[in-house]
Amino acid sequence: MAVPASRILDLLKLRASIFQTTFNPTGARLGNKILRQRLRGPALAAYYPRRTATFSDLRKLYPGFETYDEFEEDRLEGVMITKSRGKGAPKKKRTAAESKKFQGKKRR
């Protein structure tokens, strides 16, 4: 004895309401599995240490106060050494004409 499809759908609706699940007779992908999971944001935020103050933060807070950042000074010294040897980064082009000057013809 076959049961009509409408009766099975009514049974599925009733089951979804009793067990508080989603009624989805077409089987469409709704993402309910993901939405039911716990949020990961607070756990990830608690994993990483809090951000500490840096020299740039201090400079922004106290612009008149003179600070000395040893790491930044070492970095700038290294940049000056490489530039003096001709190994530094090229200068940025300021206008569109300067940037088009060295492009040349496009090859096909």
UniProtKB/TrEMBL annotation:
Keywords: Mitochondrion, Ribonucleoprotein, Ribosomal protein. Belongs to the mitochondrion-specific ribosomal protein mS33 family. Its main location: mitochondrion. Residues 84-94 have a biased composition (Basic residues). InterPro entries: Ribosomal_mS33. This is Small ribosomal subunit protein mS33. It comes from Cryoendolithus antarcticus. One of its GO terms (cellular component) is mitochondrion. Residues 82-108 are annotated as: Disordered. It is found in: Mitochondrion.
